[in-house]
Design brief:
The protein is α+β, with helices and mostly antiparallel strands. It has a domain at about 10-190. Helices cover about 30% and strands about 30% of the residues. The protein has helices at about 10-25, 45-50, 85-95, 165-190, 210-225, 250-255, 305-320, 320-340, 375-385, 395-405, 455-475; strands at about 35-40, 55-60, 65-70, 75-80, 100-105, 110, 115-120, 135-140, 145-150, 150-160, 230-240, 260-270, 270-275, 280-285, 290-300, 340-345, 350-355, 360-370, 390, 415-420, 425-430, 435, 440-450. The strands form two sheets. It has a 13-stranded mixed β-sheet with strand order 6-5-1-10-9-3-2-12-13-22-23-11-19, sandwiched between helices. Strands 4, 7, 8, 14, 15, 16, 17, 18, 20 and 21 form a ten-stranded antiparallel β-sheet that branches. Helix 1 packs antiparallel against helix 4, helix 3 runs antiparallel to helix 9 (about 375-385) and helix 6 crosses helix 11 (about 455-475). It is globular. The two termini are about 35 Å apart. About 45% of the residues are buried.
């Protein structure tokens, strides 16, 4: 399933098992949650998905190259629309206070915070229909996680209420958990690599865009013309039948092969939400915050040298009043949302052009120093949804979308990533994404509507955005 990694040799396995046994007396009968950490030889974290295919699972890879995979759950922090900020913050604080961490490599306490992985629905009530298995949102403390950065791989095993029958019972419990992990990884590594196969034969092409899309865009433009909205981002969904089941881990490997994107996966039951987002919602370390405005899109012309395609896209973006207006509204919305929570913030005078594989976007990076006492879920509630995926004014835009969009968004365009027990976080906007079932895929894309928007141009933009996922899934995206 994963090439370029080596297994755990018997000597290393025995060494780690011995260090875990040495922790048993300190852990025995310990109330609450315990997390034991230790290093493993280099391996691909995604092996964990193949080792435990029936478990719920998470995956995360940042543009910096750090990669994580996790399976199972021992605790969860509720989050997202419909959950009060104080409830989420209180749950994370209680989890941290009742969590004991051990480092098997040193034999003492582990001082590193523990990550919880997850995401939330875009808006309250969006977790219905095909999204029913995902719920409104949560961040999960996994049973097992693998985190890599460079050549190091850190494994964490979480145990709820370690056995109280003395060190021997705890030692046996730890040994069984470690053996289960090692045997699972060995089985996944020995399995033939999952292949995505050829593209699904294309469905008949309909030359015209759907009337439903035209009506949606025109309703949005009418609301803007009447000054009820300044901007709104409307969503389009494509349902595609798949000829043979796609392995989500294989799709994630395909998405991870390109640099510069936040690759994520969340498996719940028989469905997986996955994608490769170009947009950071928030990166927090202590009181330092980084976020960004990403709005304004141009496709890169195929067949041109990359430098020339980027130059032409940049020229078009900087000359487009529609794209510059859309981008400025997103920047304004983010800065205004952060104002009550930060001591000060900084942003560039002019957006840069960010080039991806086949698209270019206008981007403005925003950095800020948070006020003392601001918790991560308060920050998340202030930033999501940014005007890049919702609209302005926010409440009016969300009301328009709930009344006008013909499909449920689910976790599409919602926050996805990780939060740790100290409140630091790295969270992307769940765009350039799809919901994958064994025989179906639902692809999502949005378009920012301002008064100057043209339905056909916006329709083509959503096609270009969907192409990233349809390519990774080996399906042929056909305009509806």
């Amino acid at each position: 399933m994963a090439t370029g990694t080596r297994g755990l040799d018997p000597a290393a396995e025995q060494d780690i098992a011995g260090r875990l046994r040495a922790l048993a007396p300190a852990m025995a009968g310990h109330p609450g949650l315990v997390v034991v950490s230790f290093d493993l030889p280099p391996l691909a974290p995604l092996l964990l998905w193949g080792a435990f295919p029936e478990h719920e699972a998470s995956y995360w890879k940042s543009p910096a190259g750090t990669e994580s995979a996790a399976i199972g759950r021992v605790a969860a922090v509720p989050a997202g629309p419909g959950t009060a900020v104080g409830v989420s913050a209180g749950a994370l604080d209680r989890l941290d206070r009742h969590l004991t961490r051990f480092d098997a490599d040193t034999g003492g306490a582990d001082r590193e915070p523990v990550r919880l992985y997850g995401g939330t629905a875009f808006d309250a009530g969006a977790d219905t229909g095909v999204w029913a298995e995902f719920g409104g949102g949560e961040f999960v403390l996994p049973e097992i996680s693998l985190e890599s950065a460079g050549s190091a791989v850190r494994c964490r095993i979480a145990i709820e209420n370690p056995p109280a029958g003395g060190a021997g019972a705890c030692e046996e419990h730890l040994g069984l958990a470690f053996t289960r992990l090692v045997r699972g990884l060995e089985g996944a590594r020995a399995a033939p690599p999952a292949r995505l196969g050829p593209e699904t034969p294309p469905a008949p092409v309909e030359e015209d865009m759907p009337d439903e899309w035209v009506r949606l865009v025109e309703r949005a433009r009418a609301a803007i013309r009447e000054r009820r909205l300044r901007k709104v981002v409307v969503c389009r969904r494509r349902a595609i039948a798949i000829d043979a089941p796609r392995d989500p881990a294989a799709v994630l490997r395909e998405l991870s092969s390109r640099a510069g994107e936040y690759v994520f996966g969340a498996r719940r039951g028989g469905r997986t939400f996955l994608g490769a987002s170009p947009e950071l919602l928030m990166q927090r370390a202590g009181r330092w915050l980084r976020t960004e405005a990403l709005a304004g899109t141009r496709g890169l012309e195929a067949g041109l040298p990359r430098w020339r395609a980027l130059a032409e896209a940049a020229e078009q973006l900087y000359a487009s009043g529609k794209d510059l207006e859309e981008h400025a509204l997103v920047v304004q919305g983010i800065v205004e949302a952060l104002a009550p929570l930060v001591e000060h913030s900084s942003l560039p005078e002019w957006p840069e052009v960010r080039g991806l594989t086949d698209l270019a976007h206008l981007r403005s990076r925003i950095e800020a120093e948070l006020k003392a006492g601001v918790n991560t879920f308060e920050l998340l509630g202030a930033l999501h949804p940014t005007p890049a995926v919702g609209g302005l004014p926010r409440s009016e835009a969300l009301d328009f979308l709930s009344r006008s969009e013909p499909v449920e968004r689910g976790w599409y365009a919602g926050p996805v990533g990780w939060v740790n027990t100290e409140g630091d976080a790295e969270i992307a906007v769940g765009i350039r994404s799809a919901l994958l079932a064994p025989r179906m895929a639902w692809l999502y894309a949005g378009a920012g509507i301002v008064l100057a928007s043209d339905p056909l141009a916006e329709f083509r933009e959503t096609d270009a955005k969907m192409r990233r996922l349809s390519s990774a899934l080996r399906v042929t995206e056909i305009p509806a």
